Amino acid sequence: MDFRLTEEQELLRKSVAQFVAREVLPRAAAIDESGEFPADLFRRLGALGYFGARYPPELGGTGAGHLAFNLLVEELARGSLSLAAAAAMQSLMGTHFLAALGTPDHKTRLLAPALAGEAIGSIAMTEPGAGSDLGAMKTVAVRDGDSWRLSGRKVWVTNAPVADFFTVAAKTDPAAGFQGIDLFLVERKTPGLSVGREIAKLGTRGCPASELLLEDVRVPRENLLGGPGSGHRHLGALLSEIRVMTASLALGVGRAALDAALAYSGERVQFGKPIREFQAVAHRLADAATELEAARGLAYRAAWSLDQGKPDAKLAAMAKLFASEMANRAADAATRVLGSYGFAMEFGAQRHFRDARFLLYGGGTSEILRNVIARELSREA
Fold first, then answer.
1. Could you tell me which of 82, 109, 84 has the C-alpha nearest to residue 248?
2. Closest CA to 88 of 243, 299, 226
3. Residue 216: pLDDT above 80?
4. 20 to 30 A from 1, CA-CA: which of 18, 22, 165, 185?
């Protein structure tokens, strides 16, 4: 493996970094404080072609590849995890199944505008009693002539308050557990679909999440994405990408936290010298930087394996596990380096500390990921 980025990947990283420095960082605190979805910045990302990084040109993307997409995600998360999380949903889970399994009409009418930032897509999987255990899902889809009728309640649907369409996971065979899940395209205007209460969150406050209610929602048969009995396979195939993407979000937050700690520790003088010259502080910085670099190696290698057409479930789980925990440790270290100012809303360290918690859940909790890694190790033994 060549660990050097290509010229195209470096150019993409630099362009996103410049966008973040110019347009995102100056507004990151305000986005968090207001809790409002940054619609204008979101549309700008689409106009710049960033939402299509992992899609081929024939679908309206740029064909930059998986590693390039994850570099983009990392840079956005360094500026604002709220914006990065909303963009990641749009670029991956919110549009992937439409791109891979949708009809030509779906792709023209919904996918193309979404990649241009003119429409918003989301995915609805989690339920009050079905998080890690998706097989416990209660939302059902029943065949009715040339249509399907969906009924159920989803929670933690990212971007739901602003979304134009949803990929909804529902049971077509309730007795089959996870294998009974299929995927349906449901547009917001569909009768019976309603967005429920928005969830007030500790962090990522500018990336909205809410309940989604489906009451006898009728969709045409072509809105069953992938055919009956295939949904669980399509979901499973995307898990590695989701986990690598979450690891990349964590890299951005970890970098932001370390940058905040480095800047403050160089400016804060106690006992006649900057506090980063004291060994206790210096060691916190050294540990955070070391863990960040280790997480970067895992995440980049996992993304590279996706570009080779060889997704590695164990490596993706390792990347997400280590990077998400790293981001939380780095954010905690930053608040400690800042001392009482780490508790002050006027400094960004507290935002990174709150935002980092978000990364522990999506794509599998740390406990689930350890189970995945252990299972893969047993298979290799």
1. 84
2. 243
3. yes
4. 18
Q: Distance (Å, rounded) from C-alpha 119 to C-alpha 168? A: 17
Name every residue whose Cβ is closer than 8 Å to that of residue 4 and which is 6 or more positions away in sequence.
Answer: none
Cα distances (Å, whole numbers) of residue 52 to 45, 175, 334, 344: 10, 37, 34, 38
Q: What are phi and psi of 322, to 5 degrees?
A: -70, -40
pLDDT at 374: 98
Distance CA 373, CA 316 (A): 9
**Cα gap 268→278, rounded to integer Å:** 11
Q: How confident is the model at residue 381 (pLDDT cuts 50, 70, 90)?
A: confident
The two structure tokens encoding residue 22: 């110019």
Q: Is the pLDDT of residue 1 over 70?
A: no
Q: Which residue has the tokens 């689409």?
A: 46
Task: Give residue for tokens 């080779």.
Answer: 308
